[in-house]
Amino acid sequence: MRLPDINKQKKYLLAVSGGVDSMVMCDLFLKTGIVFGVAHCNFKLRGEESDGDELLVKNWCETNSIPFFVEQFETKNYAADHRISVQVAARNLRYTFFYQILEAEHYDVIATAHHQDDNIETVLFHFFRGTGIQGMTGIPFQHDRILRPLLHLSKSNILAYAEKQQILFRNDSSNQQSDYTRNKMRNEIIPQLQEMFPAFKNNIAENIERLKAVHDLYTQQIEQFRRQLTELRGKDWFIPILKLKKVQPLATILYEIIKPFHFNYDQSLQVLNMLDSASGHRVENDQFIILKDRTF
Fold first, then answer.
1. How far apart are CA 101 and CA 99, in angstroms?
2. How much of the chain is in helix, strand and coil states, percent to nearest 5?
3. pLDDT tens column, 215-265
């Protein structure tokens, strides 16, 4: 098992929790000779267990002479102060910390240990919640300065590698609880689907790759429609109604054209109803207004 082809000239900051996924990622990076450091967040949500995670990662870095960066957070207090969930608070704190290290220590890329099973969970989560084609393409291998080098590996691959290489790691007991939607998906729904359809995970993984190609084609076509149907005059965009009515599927194309201006699908249906209305009708959000003005 190895890392995919990545730029070995860059410096990587590995986000490491102490779990099997991130500790395997550390081992794979160590064997490549790529320059990297390790960042660990102690969210202080599991008492001594959280401190044990931190100690494991710290000891691994010291043993292997890897730069180690750690921060302890009062996550519950932060969540309460900002009126957000603990999960959102942890994510905000985590990435703020990572980007601070990135800038201060001159790293180029953050590497996280998301794997194929995480990708499957994400796609199912999007599907059941409601999503467009993009939501069905899963987690991107790289976005902005975040890289996910284990995305091609299944959880079973990672566990087998950890056992073979005798890699030390810690289990997060909270992952076994189904209090949160994603944990319920992982612990209850996916095992039932796999029992009914043994090839379920492989099939979903293959479909994700197919849907990425479909999304690329879809995006190219939408951009063609966007160029054909929109005209910038000063600070305003104009869409000719007669020309718009001739395209199909109209509702989808209209939604994609106005989506970059932060309008949702329900609002796009309101705009659709405006096409045959009198001038002056409008749909608006916090930043933009769509106005019916005669033939535009």
1. 5
2. 55, 10, 35
3. 999 999 999 999 999 999 999 999 999 999 999 999 999 999 999 999 999
Beta pairing class for 236-238 and 282-284: unpaired
Q: Is 70 helix (H, G, I), strand (E, B) or coil?
A: strand
Which tokens is 209 given? 């790759």
Cα–Cα dist 108/89, whole Å: 24
The token duo for 58 is: 């710290």
How many helices (H) and strands (E) the chain has is answered by 12, 10
Q: How far is CA 296 from CA 133, 202, 238, 248, 261, in A?
A: 29, 48, 6, 18, 17
Helix extents (H) in 83-199: 86-104, 116-129, 155-165, 181-184, 190-196
The answer, yes or no, to whether the previous bond of 198 is cis (omega within 30 of 0) is no
Question: What is the helix (H) or strand (E) element at residue 283, kind and residue range?
Answer: strand 282-284
